[in-house]
Specification:
heterodimer; A: mainly alpha; MetI-like fold; B: 256 residues; alpha/beta; six-stranded mixed β-sheet; four-stranded antiparallel β-sheet
């Protein structure tokens, strides 16, 4: 119908002048009411007041090169400190002459993440890529091959440690969370009770206390001489925590599936597992992508709590870098730097979640 | 199993048999002593006022609802709490719902091939051929790659019928298949159902479409307050109902 209408030339009245163009846009978006006009003016004032000093500090007055900390104290930011310390911030206490390995690990992670963005790879191939990638990460970090010195996990630090804790936490915590969510809705009372008990217990305790207990109290209960790797303990604590939080997010999605979907699957003769895997979970998970990613972002940043058991992740290594007597007083620069790193990852996750949402909600589009 | 076989022998060709079936929702007695036999190829139309238990009854036949007393034998298998038996029965019994219940995250073709591939273990290609055949049958062959949300209600219900047929069931259950449809779409769904009936499918339909009932039904069943009040061939049922309640019901729905 519209096609036909467009084929016939008709003189159309032009829209009123004031509703189009820059002026029209300003009117429609920034000054469409008294209240909005006031808000616009306040916002403009804030920008005028705050942006120039920030630009001056970060760029114009900044010092980019300096032999030591004393020479670096001017009016602006001391980016020379980052130049001096970025290796320590990124790789922490990892042996200096072996630091190509954690650097390579960061690239492996980047490659894995990039592969997840590439739609045609989704499915079994992506799983293989990630399996190979994670194996490479651990091989590079731990070493042990000829020509690669063994590096104990206590020395793993910086950005690779943050990425390992977060990614492994998600890879294991998510499936465990899905199982807990399904268990919580099980018809078997025992299964339900265990899942509810676990979720409520873990959610009710701060992660930091569990990390603390795992590292200080667990050794007391273990037989003498038996130790569990400190990193492994922290990683397990993070996985168990992630699972409890993710379970509740997933449960929200499960509850939103109409009963008719389950009945239709049952009526076709699908088994519980087929029904769950093919009908219920795909819809439930697609529905909770935004809160899931919210949890993932929170988890990514929560990994910095491992500092409590003296594992030096990105934040911990940064704190350590700030204690250098030659370079005192550059905490702001250091934290701005790692804030940008954290932000880049979290922003990526948020964008990626939007892609996933679009991809998995195709059926709902009309 | 031996029980099930015995029941089968006793009632010759009955593919669905309900004997003294009772069901309660809490205190509420939804089904009271339901007895019903459906022979192979027979078309039974169940009607009655809302809340009379007709949907519950039909849903007991593939155990979407559990009965608490009595026996239900479907396609030679007695329905008990044994999951294997339930799944075996459901493979042979197709069901069409009032709300269609298509899987919105799958395309039409995927909706149709899902159960044949996963439950019947058919090769994907064969399942797709079957699916396209039945899409042709329900007269929407060109919608295979769309998502259910992109179709009209009538089209969705026809896809739902095709989805059930792809499992090649012995019996089809229809639970008010046209009640959620706009009037102009009811006919397209009923046409498909009439076609099915003409091919000899065993059908149990809960519906208020009395025109359809007159055309295809071998047997009319009238239910009220959880009981089967009357059972008769459509000719007698419509022209000479025996029970007052049936008469009252018919006069209400046929008044317009």
């Amino acid at each position: 119908m519209t096609d036909i209408a467009q084929d016939i030339p008709v003189a159309r009245p032009a829209p009123p002048r004031r509703s189009t163009g820059v002026f029209g846009w300003l009117r429609a978006n920034l000054f469409n009411s008294v209240f909005n006009s006031i808000l616009t003016l306040i916002a403009v004032a804030l920008i005028v007041v705050s942006v120039p000093p920030i630009v001056r500090w970060a760029l114009i007055d900044a010092i980019w090169r300096a032999p030591n900390g004393q020479a670096c104290h001017g009016g602006g930011a001391c980016w020379a400190f980052i130049g001096e310390k970025f290796r320590f911030i990124l790789f922490g206490r990892y042996p200096l002459d072996e630091q190509w390995r954690p650097a390579a690990v960061i690239f492996v992670f980047a490659a894995m993440i990039a592969s997840a963005c590439f739609r045609p790879l989704w499915g079994r191939r992506l799983a293989i890529i990630w399996f190979v990638g994670m194996s490479a990460v651990f091989l590079l970090m731990a070493g042990g091959l000829p020509g690669m010195r063994r590096v104990e996990t206590a020395l793993w630090s910086g950005l690779p440690l943050t990425l390992i804790l977060a990614v492994v936490g998600m890879l294991f915590g998510f499936p465990l969370g899905v199982l807990l969510a399904l268990g919580r809705r099980s018809r078997l009372p025992a299964v339900r009770a265990i899942c509810v008990g676990y979720i409520e217990l873990v959610r009710g305790v701060p992660l930091i206390t569990v990390l603390f207990m795992a590292s200080l109290m667990l050794p007391l209960f273990l037989p003498a001489g038996m130790t569990i790797d400190k990193l492994l303990r922290a990683q397990i604590a993070i996985i168990l925590f992630a699972a409890a939080y993710l379970a509740e997010v997933v449960r929200g999605g499960l509850q939103a599936i109409p009963k008719g979907q389950v009945e239709a699957a049952d009526a076709l003769g699908l088994s519980y597992f087929q029904r769950t895997r093919l009908i219920v979970l795909p819809q439930a998970l697609a529905m909770v992508i935004p809160p899931l990613v919210n949890s993932f972002i929170g988890m990514f940043k929560d990994t910095s709590l491992v500092i409590i058991v003296s594992l030096f992740d990105l934040l911990g290594a940064t704190g350590f870098a700030l204690t250098d007597a030659n370079w005192q007083g550059f905490a702001v620069e250091a934290y701005v730097f790692i804030a940008l790193i954290y932000w880049a990852f979290c922003f990526f996750m948020s964008r990626y979640s939007q892609v996933l949402e679009r991809e998995f909600n195709r059926g709902k589009r009309r | 199993m031996s029980d099930a076989k015995a029941a089968n022998g006793a009632t010759s060709a009955a593919v669905i048999e309900l004997q003294g079936v009772h069901k309660w929702y809490g205190e509420f007695h939804v089904l009271r002593d339901i007895n019903l036999q459906v022979q192979k190829g027979e078309k039974v139309v169940v009607c009655g006022p809302s809340g009379s238990g007709k949907s519950t009854m039909i849903r007991c036949i593939n155990r979407l609802e559990e009965h608490q007393q009595g026996r239900i034998v479907v396609a030679g298998i007695e329905l008990t709490s044994d999951l294997k038996n339930i799944e075996a029965t459901r493979r042979e019994v197709g069901m069409v719902f009032q709300q269609f219940n298509l899987f919105p995250h799958l395309t039409v073709l995927q909706n149709l091939t899902l159960a044949p591939v996963w439950v019947r273990k058919l090769p994907k290609k064969e399942a797709e051929e079957t699916a396209r055949y039945y899409l042709e049958r329900v007269r929407i062959p060109d919608q295979a790659d769309k998502y259910p949300g992109q179709l009209s209600g009538g089209q969705q219900q026809r896809v739902a019928i095709a989805r059930s047929l792809c499992m090649k069931p012995e019996i089809m259950l229809f639970d008010e298949p046209t009640s959620a449809l706009d009037p102009e779409m009811i006919k397209e769904v009923l046409d498909v159902m009439v076609g099915l009936a003409e091919e000899g499918m065993t059908m149990v339909c809960v519906t208020h479409e009395m025109g359809f009932a007159r055309t295809v039904a071998d047997m009319m069943v009238f239910m009220d307050r959880g009981e089967v009040i009357e059972r008769a061939p459509p000719k007698d049922f419509f022209s000479n109902p025996k029970s007052d309640r049936t008469r009252a019901f018919l006069s209400q729905i046929l008044a317009h």
